[in-house]
């Protein structure tokens, strides 16, 4: 989908390719022609681009993947595709389709949908493509939902896939959209594992995989790395594992294998939990030697009570130790923090930001608590009457307040999270670790971009005040995922 969040993707800073659709495409039988389109790269001319490319390809089957906050756009894209290729079959998948398959099957847009895949898509999609050519049977494909007499039939969910049997994702010319970058360096994505055994109440991961953790064979991981490093000539790689460090012994073995390959200028970005990173200093050292330059840590919150609500446990000391361990071995830390728990008031928001400053993390990923569909936290918040937007999922991207607290209404919560970020955290001041990783671009930020931005924002503050600046920012962000050429349908 073309929808992006300002927390993750910026037009000039960071665009990642989609690994999910690349993996599904890579596992379709070779006798089928397959292409990948990533609409993030075509945000400004979706209708024109699809009209041109679909006329050229003339597809029999189009697969669409969407998160909850992208699904409204997904429905519009489905309608557009059907108008361009009238006899095409459409299949949707991903987190939202998996969690909300019953609701989608009963929705107005279900008329544009021919199939739904729930859970992992590689095997179900492969078999679906074969079935449409008469080499398989729809009713025998686990995890597939299909129509019988105009109504959806939901086959039983499949067992979790054997990751050792999956082929490499597609990264060649069949990927029709390109230009993925981290600043002005090329970036690719890969995975070494799937799933997570943690019990975070705000996460929908267990709806996809259960509380399981599976790993790709090390030989498969190295083959994936070789494809990116040698064939795509790319040195920055984001490893999308939800928690890379769940098995520290395996991490060390994998790092040793990467070190032995002796890749030059390899830069890896991973996601990790604070407990594992705090307790396994040797693992952290090996990660640094293997080329891991940036670590995303789920720090979440400064309040022990809020951590209990999130079912994270008391990880405050672990967070401090994890950041220190990363810094000891020269790795940059991106700290993830969540605001808007039931007991949060203005003081709690300030303390959360102050805690982040004290940790000395190098960059921030701040979110507002979001009641994602089917999560345990959502059910709890609904019972307490704290969900203020239960249905309109397009705002469920972590930026917007869809909940209230016992002390703050949604609008006030959203404003205070924004306001105190400016006041307490302030402008990004790159640490030594960030400067080493960012090189030339950090200098551009310090000596050019930041002074220019500070000048214009200071002028806005003098003219409109904090409230005025906030309203202008909200207006800009609210239009970020509005696509006029799709609204014309």
Describe the structure.
By secondary structure, the chain is of the alpha/beta class. The chain has three domains: 14-154, Rossmann fold (3-Layer(aba) Sandwich), CATH 3.40.50.280; 180-438, Alpha-Beta Barrel (TIM Barrel), CATH 3.20.20; 449-487, no CATH class. The protein has 19 helices and 15 strands. Strands 1-7-8-11-12-13-14-15 form an eight-stranded mixed sheet. A five-stranded mixed sheet has the order 2-3-4-5-6. It has a two-stranded antiparallel sheet with strand order 9-10. α14 links the parallel β14 and β15 (363-368). α1 (19-26) crosses α6 (122-131) and α14 packs parallel to α16 (410-425). The radius of gyration is 23 Å and the shape is globular. It starts with 13 loop residues before the first strand and ends with a helix. The mean pLDDT is 90.
Got a strand count?
15
CATH superfamily of the largest domain: Aldolase class I
CATH class label of the largest domain: Alpha Beta
CATH topology of the largest domain: TIM Barrel
Helix content: 40-55%
- Rg, nearest Å: 23 Å
Shape: globular
Give the termini distance in whole angstroms.
17 Å
Strand order of the largest sheet: 1-7-8-11-12-13-14-15
The CATH architecture of the largest domain: Alpha-Beta Barrel
Low-pLDDT regions: none
The helix tally amounts to: 19
SS-derived structural category = alpha/beta
* Major β-sheet annotation: 8 strands, mixed
**Overall mean pLDDT:** 90
Proportion of beta-strand residues: 5-15%
